[in-house]
Amino acid sequence: MDEKDYLNQMIEAGGKDAELTPKQAKILEAAIEIFAERGYASTSTSEIAKKAGVAEGTIFRHYKTKKELLITIVKPVITKFAVPFFATHFVNQVFNEKTADYEELLRKIIRNRFEFAQKNVPLIKILLQEMAFHTEIQQSYQDVFKKEVFPRFDETIKHFQARGQLVNYPSEAIIRFTITTILGFLITRFIVMPKADWNDEAEINRTIHFLMNGLSKGNEERL
Amino acid sequence: MDEKDYLNQMIEAGGKDAELTPKQAKILEAAIEIFAERGYASTSTSEIAKKAGVAEGTIFRHYKTKKELLITIVKPVITKFAVPFFATHFVNQVFNEKTADYEELLRKIIRNRFEFAQKNVPLIKILLQEMAFHTEIQQSYQDVFKKEVFPRFDETIKHFQARGQLVNYPSEAIIRFTITTILGFLITRFIVMPKADWNDEAEINRTIHFLMNGLSKGNEERL
DNA sequence: AATAATAGTGAGTACTCACTCACCATTAAA
DNA sequence: TTTAATGGTGAGTGAGTACTCACTATTATT
Questions:
Q1: Which of A173, A203, A213 sits opposite B214 (nearest CB)?
Q2: CA B154 – CA B175 distance, rounded (Å)
Q3: Which parts of the chain span the membrane according to its record (chains A, B) (predicted)?
Q4: Higher model confidence: residue B92 or residue B19?
Q5: Chain C bases closer than 7 angstroms to a protein Cβ
Q6: Closest CB from A169, A181, A212 relative to B206
Q7: Any bridge partners for residue B62, and if so which?
Q8: CA-CA distances (angstroms) from residue B128 to A19, A37, B26, B85, B141?
Q9: What domains can be seen in chain B, in order of their start residue?
Q10: CB–CB of A206 and B169 under 8 A?
């Protein structure tokens, strides 16, 4: 319903002062909705035009190809979803505050990403589906993950390991468990079983709790 | 390379003594490979025919529609992947052996599903991709999960909770964490980063270890 | 007021798609 | 040997497909 969220992302990421005309916005809205529902490959440009209340030619005035339309939609999602996973803001906070612990960090990340996911279900669906088939999307994802997310995450985990708060797994493993658990929760919550009646507060707390038990120093058994 | 695994599944599940002719087998092999690579919607029947070394008409001699071909391929995967997740054999073992604990069960399940995933990467890719768009697949999955997997899993978890081995989360949450962690590992291992150099033994052990720490009674903090 | 740039149009184009069908080949039953 | 059933063929079909282009409408610049 609240499509503005999508479009603001486009504008910001689309380079400087890119202002969308009403019809351009309609095209993006329509494309997002149908791509999420039926998938990119089985969505026709005529269908998008029809839903957007626009002539088919108008789509190609703004996007050279159907694929360019997809990329325009998907690329900003990668940045917006992945980067705040470990934004500078958080990391700085961790290293400055002496009281900060991994649990606190987890709580902030999960809350943050929960709200993002809630507002952008269709976009996340498209990203998950189309990542498998388009090398441009894979590339974009790898760039963001390798350059933005992984280094900061790695640093943070080693910080907490040095303080004896986290188990001595390789930091890649801790990153994997953390991301896997959070994504697993969000995907179950918003994509696999969105209609179940969730107690979100309780579920978020349990997820943090589970992660902390799994990753805390002191709970280790052997190797 | 070892395509026989796929085809045996088809035969067994395809009803009684369904014997595939060489050309039929070639069609399935080709379809599985291309579906996994490019996705169902962007795979043409002419492409499948060409790769299988068969006339296009031959496909439609055996499958009324392109979609029927997809369903024939995907349906057995759901059963084969989901059911042994909690096969009777395992569950019986758990209730009979007094020494059995959740860790032992986890170890069996993970080993088992790891080998299955290893042998059936393309089929799992197709299932993950197409589940989102085809209600027949969703239905099939829900049937299997609700009737076969969930009840046994639920029972087992309550059994271990009663014995004080598992944390007192709702059993749905324990199921979710367990499946999420295992699937997260398998998907990372075989689909997202299949080319990284994995130490599979160590990674399997760590995954079990992480899950046990996260779910064991005694590690609880509050709530 | 004249010019130019941008947004929007929709009929048209070349092509691909899933699917059909009349026909041949091989084996099995009568 | 005839009949029937099944497997296999590939040219043909109509319904789309992404994309183009000559054109109009609107706004901004000179």
A1: A213
A2: 8
A3: 173-192
A4: B19
A5: 7-12, 16-22
A6: A169
A7: none
A8: 37, 15, 23, 17, 11
A9: 3-222 (1.10.357.10)
A10: yes
**β-strand partners of B166:** B216
Nearest to A156 by CA among A222, A65, A91, A72: A91
Residues of B in contact with A137 (CB under 8 A): none
Whole-model pTM above 0.70? yes
DSSP state of A219: -
Please state, in angstroms and rounded to a whole number, the distance separating the CA atoms of residues A88 and A209: 25
Most B CBs within 10 A among A210, A212, A216, A221, hence the mutation to make, goes to: A210
Q: What is the pLDDT of residues A157-192, one digit of tens each?
A: 999 999 999 999 999 999 999 999 999 999 999 999
Interface contact flag, B213 A211, Cβ < 8 Å: no
3-state secondary structure A77-125: HHHHHHHHHHCHHHHHHHHHCCCCCHHHHHHHHHHHHHHHHHHCHHHHH
Does the CB of A188 have a partner CB in chain B at under 8 Å?
yes
- Min Cα distance A133 → chain B (Å) is 6
Which of B121, B10, B4, B5 has the alpha carbon at shortest distance from B75?
A: B10
Specify whether the backbone of A16 is left (phi greater than 0), alpha (psi in -120 to 50) or beta. left
